[in-house]
Write a structure and sequence with these properties.
single chain, about 675 residues, alpha+beta, Lipoxygenase-1, Lipoxygenase-1, domain 5, 2 domains, elongated, PLAT/LH2_dom_sf
């Protein structure tokens, strides 16, 4: 019996998504397959970007459709970015979500999109199609050797002969890629450089940089103690503030040092007992080599980011302010500075702390704990889960561009001679920034990225202890929404733990992850046997690449662009004596003109959103929809409703505060790490 199959095919609207090539399709079903059919309408330009075309294919009854096999004959401008296809015949319908490239000269199988575990693929053709897809993907996504990633998470192996798969590349962006933003920022600043004096003063001349750029909002407040403390709870690196019961060891501090800085009648001991003393501690920088290099003229350049620490006090107005800073760990040579010291002593101490925070942030909080720990999960998902697998469908949108930006960062920022060598303290010949990343990784476990446990560990979960902590107050509802969403999807397929144990594709996913991606001791379980463990792990991954990355990334321009607020290197050793610093000494400590230029440009680039960014709460819904089952769409809608409620709560709070915290608004959080 001959059946007419109606194919509705949608080409992506992204720039360059359309094709001039001839496209053929073969329908493959449980009863056989059709011959290849040309998808070509007379006097019509098929498969233009954003177009939705309808074609008719006559074939014998193929039973249940398993896949569509598309062949791209190649030629000029041949690559085709296929969003999805929808097929109907005799009252039946099949969906084929894809959202990937069909490259010129290639044939690809697009599997039918009903979410299924391996054991639910009842026909041999389905099982074979899943297996063949994964065999192909494993060749496209090979692991880097263990030697190449020693001390760091596993990563994709790339070379000149095996470049990044096109599906992972940025798609038709003219403005949104970070390299373009860097170039445009540098060009804008350099337009004004002739007006800058040759005798560079970073405290004054920095303002000339912003004649062609937006001025960070913190500029009028940057010297203020309350502003310094505000950045600890809603700045670029808000994961360090910790309630402490005692003054840290080798930090000599007396009540006399703090005279007038605590509430009347309050001693340091009483403030500690009352849970009003908090710590920022960047001890991870201890023993990390700093930039040190002699140029061809024999002049040595050095940079510093000390293993500093800072105590903050919750005063009677329930606001935080810094009360003591030590720029090292040695009580004999590293004095403790307080606001009672000279104006420039105290200002310099705060600037050095921000420099310590910045180096720790860039390599640990940002690069390692979001970008590089996400990459193994991208890898094992692409290598082990076919498109119909529910975990692939759950994760794929959150992994868009992650491999591209990670490889760009390795080559452009972190590599020898890269941008970080130009301006951060831990860069340079001894690769201190890479040692810092490895040190952070050695201490890290995936459970550290779970926010509630992190707040509990640091003693700052309760608003009674730390009243104003916007990062905490926004992160927790988002985590809870994700946990409900991920759990709802996974438990729809894994009704019991035995279902997960019996999922051969997920068990191979786990084996690949623990053998090549992350050691099992960094994961929440020794074996993948419990659905609860999988819910926890995937919630953590999605939270990390969306919420956590947004928190530590998109304030970079606001935080770093006004360089005196948070320099990424200091050009002089931390002061060892009190009462000797002058204003001109501060100017000599902070970055040079060239270093400032790079810091502004990189901060602006890494804070920018791509033109095709997809947000957690996206206008008109997510563009790439992988699930179409009503029960799963209902779970997604419940998730988006929680995000809408959270957005309203964030906006209501921000309307009441002097400095809004908007970076964790659900409509401003990208679904994944795209920059």
């Amino acid at each position: 019996m001959t059946v007419e199959y109606k194919l509705k095919i949608r080409t992506s609207a992204k720039l360059g998504a359309g094709t001039n090539a001839d496209i053929f399709v073969t329908l493959v079903g449980t009863h056989g397959e059709s011959g290849p059919h040309a998808l070509n309408k007379r006097f019509h330009d098929d498969f233009e970007a954003g177009a939705e075309e309808v074609y008719s294919v006559q074939a014998t009854d193929l039973g249940e459709l398993v896949l569509l096999r598309f062949t791209n004959t190649g030629g000029v401008a041949a690559d085709w970015l296929l969003d999805q296809a929808h097929v109907t015949a005799e009252g039946k319908q099949w969906r084929f979500p894809f959202f990937r490239w069909v490259q010129g000269g290639a044939t690809v199988d697009v599997l039918e999109g009903t979410a299924k575990l391996a054991r639910q693929a009842s026909h041999a053709r389905e099982a074979t199609a899943r297996h063949e897809l994964l065999e192909h993907r494993r060749r496209m996504y090979p692991w880097r050797s263990a030697e190449a990633t020693a001390g760091l998470p596993g990563a994709l192996d790339l070379s000149e002969t095996r470049p990044l798969p096109k599906d992972e590349l940025y798609r038709g962006l003219t403005e949104g890629s970070y390299e373009v933003v860097i170039a445009k920022t540098l060009a804008s600043i350099k337009l004004h450089l002739p007006m800058l004096s040759n005798a560079w003063n970073g405290l004054v001349d920095i303002f000339d940089f912003f004649k062609g750029l937006e001025v960070p909002q913190l500029v009028p407040r940057w010297k203020d103690d309350y502003e310094f403390a505000r950045q600890a709870v809603q700045g670029i690196n808000p994961m360090h503030i910790t309630l402490v019961p005692n003054v840290p060891q080798d930090m000599p501090l007396t009540d006399e040092d703090l005279r007038g800085l605590l509430s009347p009648g309050t001693t340091l001991a009483r403030a500690l007992d009352a849970r009003r003393i908090f710590l920022l501690d960047f001890e991870i920088l201890d023993d990390i080599p700093m930039y040190r290099k002699v140029n061809e003229e024999g002049v040595e350049e050095r940079r510093w980011a000390p293993a500093s620490r800072c105590l903050l006090y919750l005063d009677d107005s329930r606001q935080l302010r810094p009360i003591a800073i030590q720029l090292g760990r040695d009580a004999r040579k590293d004095p403790v500075f307080t606001p009672n010291d000279g104006e420039y002593d105290w200002l310099a101490a705060k600037i050095y702390v921000r420099c310590s925070e910045g180096n720790t942030h860039q390599m640990v909080s940002h690069a390692l704990r979001t970008h590089f720990v996400a990459e193994p999960f991208v890898m094992v998902t692409m290598r082990n889960l076919p498109d119909p697998h529910p975990v692939y469908k759950l994760l794929r949108r959150h992994f868009r561009y992650t491999l591209a930006i990670n490889e760009g960062a390795r080559k452009g920022l972190l590599a020898e001679g890269g941008v970080f060598d130009d301006f951060i303290a831990t860069g340079g010949p001894e690769k201190g920034h890479l040692q810092l990343g490895k040190k952070g990784y050695q201490r890290w476990k995936l459970s550290d990225n779970r926010p509630r446990q992190d707040f509990e560990r640091r003693g700052v979960l309760s608003p009674d202890v730390l009243p104003s902590y916007p990062y905490r107050d926004d992160a927790l509802p988002l985590w809870d929404a994700f946990e409900d969403y991920v759990g709802g999807v996974l438990r729809h397929f894994y009704r019991t733990d035995a279902d997960l144990e019996g999922d051969t594709e997920m068990q191979q996913w786990w084996k690949d992850l623990t053998e090549h991606g992350l050691p099992v001791d960094k994961l929440p379980c020794q074996e993948l046997r419990r659905v609860d463990d999988l819910v926890d792990m995937l919630t953590t991954v999605i939270f990390t690449v969306s919420v956590q990355h947004a928190a530590v990334n998109y304030l970079q321009y606001e935080h770093y662009a006004f360089v005196p607020n948070a320099p990424l290197c200091m050009r002089q050793e931390p002061p060892r004596q009190k009462g000797v610093l002058r204003a001109e000494d501060i100017a000599a400590m902070i970055p040079s003109k060239s270093q400032t230029l790079w810091q502004v440009a990189i901060g602006r680039a890494l804070s920018s959103f791509g033109e095709d960014e997809e947000y957690l709460l996206h206008e008109f819904g997510w563009r790439e929809e992988y699930f179409h089952e009503p029960e799963l769409l209902a779970i997604r809608e419940r998730f988006h409703q929680r995000l809408r409620e959270q957005l309203a709560a964030v906006k209501a709070r921000n309307a009441r505060v002097a400095v809004p915290y908007t970076v964790l608004q659900p409509d401003k959080i990208p679904c994944g790490i795209t920059v």
